[in-house]
Amino acid sequence: MIEPETMASVRIIGSRNSIDAVITELHKTGVIEIRDLSAEIKKFEGAIEQDSPLAKFEPVSKQLVKLRGIESILPKTKKTAKIEASEENALEEAEAIDERTPFEWHNELENTKKQLEALKTELETAKKLCAFDTDFSKLESKHLTFFIGTIPARHFEEAKKKLKKIKNAETVARKTPDGETAVIVAVENSQSVEAMQALSAHAFNRITVPQGVNRPQALLAELHAKTHELEKKRIELESKITEYAENNYAKIKSLVKALETQAERAGITTNFVRTKNLFVLEGWVKEKEYHKLKLHLKQAAGESVIVEKVKVKGQAPTSLNNPSMVANFEDLATFVSLPKSNEFDPTMLYAFTFPIIYGMMLGDIAYGAVVLLLGLALWLKASGPIKRFGFVLVPCGVWSIIWGAIFGEALGFEFHAVISRVENVPMLLGLAIATGALHLLLGFTLGFFKEIKHNNTKHAAAKLAWAAVIISIGVLALFSSSQTAMIGAAAMLVASIAVIGWGEGLMGLVEIPGLIGNILSYMRIAAVGLASIALAVILNQFTPDFSMGIIAIPMTILFVGGHAFNIFLGIFEPFVQGSRLHFVEFYMKFYEGGGKPFTPFSVKKSK
Amino acid sequence: MVEGLGTGLAAIGAGIAIGAGALGTAMVQSAIGSAGVGALAEKPQVFTQVLIYLVIPETIVIFSLVVAYLIISMLGGAGAEAVA
Q1: Looking at the 3D structure of chain B, how many domains does it have?
Q2: How much is the pLDDT for A140?
Q3: Which of B6, B4, B17 is nearest to B83 (CA)?
Q4: Chain A residues close to B59, C-beta within 8 Å
Q5: Do A425 and B58 touch (CB under 8 A)?
Q6: CATH for B20
Q7: Exposed, middle or buried, A407 (CB in 10 Å: 0-12/13-18/19+)?
Q8: What ipTM was reported for this prediction?
């Protein structure tokens, strides 16, 4: 609970005949994280070599690529029944699927769409040319240049003036249906550059008349017919593909899943090493699942496989081991970093202390109820991380209500208070600092046990000395009237500092003022709460008074909006500050982090 | 409660203590924050270190709070009304 799962490093040696059975069994059981041995091959000096993927890896990958290709071009359809492909026949079934048909349809469809796009542009052009009832095939001459195109109506007059200045230029203009002016300009070849300049200065859009066109109306009809034909083809192809998808999509999807499993199994062997007749693999299992693994492998491969524990250097992966309720806090507690497999898992403590500190900051019965209800709603209705977050909010809400009752606050209004936050600020600050001191004491205690576990006696003694520093400072502050207590505390302080110097060296001594900073940092518990109250008190001065007439309206807005904002801050800010107190002040006393998550070789659960 | 010019000046002093402390924290955090985000973009594993560097200067404003509180309580004992 307070520590992650104990991991055991295992080595599995087997005859090559049983490699398939062993891999399948490991994959199904899903308890081992297989290590890559290829990097350690050098130490065997050629006696063994890195294993290669199993023979079926290649055909399986090939089929996988093919099926994923088909999957990507098919529309996602929900009309099909769910099919579970059997693992044994997946490869044969995949090979039987002909990918040419769907791909041909797909390519043809893409082509048709492109053609339709091109036709659309041609149609636009033809529509514009329809303004002239001219046979365009006659607009050709050795001596003349023709400009055919459109000019926005508002520019036409200007352009016309300019064109008039060009010698022998002729302009014919017609209005097009979309409000532009279509023009045909004829100039002598020698004037063509000048004419082009005049036109392009006025947003002239030149149209290239398609080859072999006589009259634009005829062209328009022809293009319409072509579009119609292509549209029909497009719909036909789309329905073909949809039908194919309805019949095959589910099958392809389940085959992809089955093949992915097979590819994973066939490819994992690159992490193994081999001799002519043997294969060797190593990995991590949870200590408690070691016997299960051994048993399963015996059943699957009999005497041809040996499972044994081995000692290896290097860090074991981390698998957290918390009761399901506490596990909801794992996301938050290990947010900064996952613990290493051999250090303390802070989740349990986080789950205990975080809600207390959160409640102390929020400290309001009504706000606490809001947090509690929000948490319950998320926990019961949502799923995944949000659900877990909802669960975290529940104890936070409960503690907010408890502290709210102690501080006597609801919605920023005070009633019978045990400790009044507004009137007794020194008490509140003292409470915050005391909380900090206790929290840090807990941290140092954990640090002490951690160092003992790792046989670092010197560091362990230093951790105890740090705890003693906190206690002696506490005594000095609280019992200043008793001379005996003062002398005792001072002596303890000096002795502790000496032990820290011995245990952690100069760096430890330098850190001592930092400890004061750490403790004072917990004053934010009081500060966040006070800020929230101060805001609420100010807002309550704007309680709407309807005898004041029109002024009551902005007052109401300010009152309601302000309190909504304050509730939001009240819920959000304790989360940030509370987490920070844990991650920075608390964790630094015992926590290293930097663990790698345990990812066993297993069949992926379908979504 | 001590009245007069001295009280006013002391109250202003308390305000300056918090205000300057907060400004100092903000300036330092802006520098650390932008550098930290840059570091995170390159190397997400350093999240812990970045977070810790980022929150170190927050202590300054907490010290400011202590100083301000001491000034206020020096003026009138509890000083609670002034804080609220």
Answers
A1: 1
A2: 76
A3: B17
A4: 517, 520-521
A5: no
A6: 1.20.20.10
A7: buried
A8: 0.71
